[in-house]
Design a protein that fits this description.
Number of domains of chain B: 2
Oligomer: heterodimer
Distance between the termini of chain A: 38 Å
Strand order of the largest sheet of chain A: 3-2-5-6-7-8-1-9
Radius of gyration of chain A: 21 Å
Order of helices and strands of chain B: EEHEEEHEHEHEHEEHEHEEEEH
Helix content of chain A: 25-40%
Largest sheet of chain B: 7 strands, mixed
CATH superfamily of the largest domain in chain B: Nucleotide-binding domain of ferredoxin-NADP reductase (FNR) module
Radius of gyration of chain B: 18 Å
CATH class of the largest domain in chain B: Alpha Beta
CATH architecture of the largest domain in chain B: 3-Layer(aba) Sandwich
Chain lengths: ~350, ~280
């Protein structure tokens, strides 16, 4: 189902959705002198900023930075009759949900907290308006223009907004809007794609990256030389999901807390005995890159990097995963193989 | 498909055994689930592990030290090394702990049926092996397995654990039990030396039809498995169990992986053949 709106109609559409559901979208927040663009529930349409890449992905809606593990509380806070709609999500951040689904909806052990939030969320994607210099989703097989993992997709061509349903369930949300002309839409989308440009960074490796060869490559200490181990890359990463549990001695109810953790921290793998399988920052960088490009793909099929470039943007010492991938590629090429020839 | 809330079930400590002296503080805790349904339906395999929660303090993984053939209670043996283990050591009979699990693959029990078995355990590493030893030597199970050899290694005579089991082990049919300590000592009539130096002369390491189970400090596992390989044992028949820091136990929290294998889910039991294919990061 394809529909078309002007900006005023889009506002009416979002306001109506916000009556029937809870709508979250990228909104600006003042943090000291800085403005942060992050997903939050909106009061009105005017708060929404679609044209810039949000500083944070919406992963906190699915895996909060801190949460109390309580199945009853989560059922209560996610009633079926009041779903959350996350509006304006870019393809990279939508693709990141595939990675979360792989892990948290894994057949062997389903995570009920994630499952509840995921089931209770409708995603409206937004076709990327432009490439950031740090973006490289196109190199990882992800289209910045649309993503089938969303429920609905919004496109802006000139001053018109087009919205397309991806599954039958979401058709009811847009059925009252004016029909769009399929041929005209296809032409405009093709035109957008043709003029969008490509990432300067080229990813030429076969994936999964060969585990043994890349693991033993003598490149990791050099890659991590500047790394502070601050974990910012993993906190901003839309696909990073590692977590830890906490207990509060003063908490009379003895609740169990789950919080984000990071493979970039030295304590992440440290045993009580003092032994640490990953003692150096080089080993931790290797874990981060290999998890995304070798281990996750071996276990689940797809990469667990979506090329959003936030880790590049946010690193306080300008470490760049694209450079690390290039080093890996050059090493593997010298070793013969694992690189796709142009 | 199984839903995993990551929350524990309450269990009561019903017996505490001080295993070692002050130098290596190991205690064994016997517990029982408070909920009768759970108590009745709880099953596990030797080699699997549980997550034990001490409210307000933390949670850590422990291998089952008792055999699943023991239906009345479960045992875990704990060496006091960190925050959680220290809190466990401070528990008294009647105290409540949290337990969730079982997790992990467990020892390949079915593949071992009809085979001879060699157990080489060092220190607290004997605890996960004891689950399988007591399973194999259980009166009803004993005839399913061939001859059994045990080499139990400890630092000194003060460090022996599970002493109350030794009579039963030694008196089991077709079972040989040997003990060793690191250095010679008065009134010690058994073997002396690190276990890998004793394999050739003290045990009958057959090439065919035998499974080798070893667990102990990482360095001991390394030397024992290497020596077994030198004796031409097939790496697929050499089985060990690993320990890693973990939070979830179900392959999600991201801490315990060695390459693409998760010790909590794909392990903790691995053959030497599998370990050979894994990156050296444990």
């Amino acid at each position: 189902m394809l529909k078309v709106m002007n900006e005023k109609e889009l506002k009416q559409f979002i306001d109506k959705l916000n009556n029937d559901y809870k709508v979250a979208a990228p909104v600006k927040k003042q943090q000291g002198k800085q403005e942060i663009l992050e997903y939050d529930y909106i009061e009105e349409f005017e708060e929404i900023h679609l044209e810039e890449q949000p500083d944070k992905s919406p992963k906190e809606f699915f895996l909060p930075q801190n949460e109390v593990l309580d199945p009853e509380a989560i059922a209560k806070s996610n009633p079926e009759e009041n779903k959350t709609i996350i509006f304006g999500v870019r393809s990279c951040d939508i693709e990141a949900l595939r990675v979360f689904d792989d892990v948290f909806l894994d057949d062997t052990y389903v995570d009920p907290y994630y499952e509840k939030r995921r089931d209770n969320t409708i995603i409206i994607g937004y076709s990327c308006p432009h490439r950031e210099p740090t973006c490289f989703c196109d190199q990882l097989g992800i289209s910045p223009h649309e993503n089938k993992l969303a429920d609905l997709y919004l496109y802006k061509f000139d001053d018109k907004y087009w919205i397309k349903s991806i599954n039958e369930d979401s058709e009811k949300l847009i059925k009252d809007l004016a029909d769009g002309d399929e041929d005209l839409f296809d032409e405009k989308l093709k035109n957008k794609k043709d003029n969008f440009g490509e990432s300067d960074f080229k990813f030429n490796m076969e994936t999964p990256i060969p585990e043994e060869k890349a693991f033993n490559a003598p490149i990791w200490d050099d890659i991590a030389e500047k790394c502070l181990g601050c974990g910012v890359c993993t906190y901003y990463c839309p696909t990073c999901f590692c977590f830890n549990f906490f207990f509060d001695e003063d908490d009379k109810e003895n609740q169990k807390y789950r919080s984000w953790d990071s493979c970039m921290f030295s304590l992440f793998t440290k045993h009580a005995s003092g032994h640490n399988p990953r003692e150096t920052q080089g080993q931790r960088w290797r874990q981060r890159l290999m998890h995304k490009f070798s281990y996750h793909p071996q276990n689940y099929g797809g990469l667990s990097c979506v090329g959003c470039g936030r880790c590049v943007k946010k690193c306080p010492v300008t470490l760049d995963i694209r450079e690390a991938l290039k080093s890996t590629e050059e090493y593997l090429k010298d070793e013969g193989g694992a690189v796709v020839e142009d | 498909m199984k839903t995993e809330t990551l929350l524990d079930h309450k269990a009561e400590i019903i017996k505490i055994t001080q295993e070692t002296g002050v130098n290596l503080n190991i205690k064994t805790f016997r517990y029982r689930f408070l909920d009768e349904e759970i108590r009745k339906n709880f099953t596990f395999r030797p080699g699997q592990f549980m997550m034990v929660t001490i409210d307000g303090i933390g949670e850590a993984p422990f291998g089952f030290a008792s055999s699943p053939t023991q239906k009345d209670y479960i045992e875990l043996s704990v060496k006091n090394v960190g925050l959680v283990t220290n809190a466990i050591h401070n528990l008294k009979v009647g105290d409540i702990i949290g337990v969730r699990g079982p997790y992990g693959n467990g020892f390949p029990v079915e593949e071992t049926i009809g085979k001879n078995i060699v157990f080489i355990g060092g220190g607290i590493g004997l605890a996960p092996l004891r689950s399988l030893i007591n399973y194999v030597l259980d009166e009803e199970k004993r005839k399913q397995f061939g001859n059994v050899q045990l080499l139990n290694a400890f630092r000194s005579p003060d460090d022996l654990i599970f002493k109350y089991d030794y009579d039963k082990w030694e008196n089991s049919p077709d079972t040989i039990v040997k003990y060793t300590i690191d250095e010679p000592c008065e009134k010690w009539d058994y073997c002396v030396g690190f276990p890998h130096t004793l394999l050739k002369d003290e045990l009958n390491c057959e090439l065919q039809n035998t499974k080798y189970f070893t667990c102990g400090p990482p360095i001991m596992i390394k030397f024992v498995t290497e020596e077994l390989k030198n004796l031409n044992i097939d790496p697929a028949d050499i089985i060990t169990t690993l320990e890693m820091r973990m939070s979830c136990g179900v392959g999600k929290c991201g801490k315990c992986n060695i390459g693409h294998y998760y010790v909590c889910k794909d392990g903790p039991v691995f053959t030497l053949e599998q370990l050979g294919e894994m990156p050296d990061e444990y």
